[in-house]
Amino acid sequence: MYVLDSSAFINDYHTDEGIATIPLVEEELEGEAAYRFDALEGSGMHLHIPEDNTVERIERAARETGDLAELSETDVRLVAAAFELDSPLVTDDYAMQNVAEKLDVRVEVIARDGISEQREWLFQCAGCGREFEENHDRCPVCGSSLSRKNPA
Ligand SMILES: [Zn+2]
Predict the structure, then answer these.
(1) Is the pLDDT of residue 43 over 80?
(2) How many angstroms separate the alpha carbon of residue 83 from the centre of ligand 1?
(3) Residue 80 carries which DSSP code?
(4) CB–CB of 95/67 below 8 Å?
(5) Where are the chain's structural domains?
(6) Please, which residues have CB within 8 angstroms of residue 89's CB and are 6 or more apart in sequence?
(7) Ligand 1 centroid to 140 CA: how many Å?
(8) How far away, in angstroms, is 132 Cα from ligand 1 center?
(9) Regarding the domain delimited by 2-108, which CATH topology (the fold level of the hierarchy) does it fall under?
(10) Which residue among 13, 73, 79, 130 is least enclosed by CB atoms within 10 Å?
(11) How many angstroms does the Cα of residue 120 sit away from the middle of ligand 1?
(12) Which of 137, 111, 103, 109 minimizes the C-alpha distance to 123?
């Protein structure tokens, strides 16, 4: 079973595993994402309500990692649900990932199909070392050859 956060519904996350979330997530969804939530609920998605003492435990952990101010009540309860269900949490939120890691809750990052990493190339002059965003046959400054450089 996977525990999905709001962005998982918004980004149309797919898994063959059973899924779970918390009721608060529904309030953050609109349009298509809200429709997906209803459809998944209708097909057996588990709505989990974590215990208060688990929620407090997550808040303590978040205070220790310094992430508590970044987390909404929904975020804290999602981590609590994943903790109680012993299930991976599906989220791209760094603060939630941090707290989950502290509690040994596994995190699955939402895969965004079709959006590949955008890479901007730079061209560097072998002579003067200047960098250019566009390729030239020769360095416009010193006339040496340029080579492609991966900025990552
Ligand atoms: Zn040059």
Answers:
(1) yes
(2) 57
(3) H
(4) yes
(5) 2-108, 119-152
(6) 2, 3, 5, 78, 79, 82, 96, 100, 105, 106, 107, 108
(7) 7
(8) 10
(9) Rossmann fold (3.40.50)
(10) 73
(11) 20
(12) 137
> Per CATH, which fold does 119-152 belong to?
Rubrerythrin, domain 2 (2.20.28)
The model's pLDDT over 19-42, given as tens digits with 9 standing for 90+, comes to 999 999 999 999 999 999 999 999
pLDDT of residue 122: 83
Name the token pair of 65: 């990692």
Give the tokens for residue 4: 């999905």
Q: Which residues surround ligand 1, an ion (CB under 5 A)?
A: 125, 127-128, 139, 141-142, 144
| Single-letter residue type at 68 | L
- The rounded Å distance from CA 139 to ligand 1 centre is 5
Q: Please report which helix (H) or strand (E) contains residue 54, including its range.
A: helix 52-65
Q: Which residue has the tokens 């215990």?
A: 51
Rounded to whole angstroms, the Cα distance separating 152 from 139 reads 22
**Mind listing the pLDDT tens digit for each residue in 103-126?**
999 999 886 554 444 456 788 999
C-alpha–C-alpha distance, residues 83 and 30, integer Å:
27
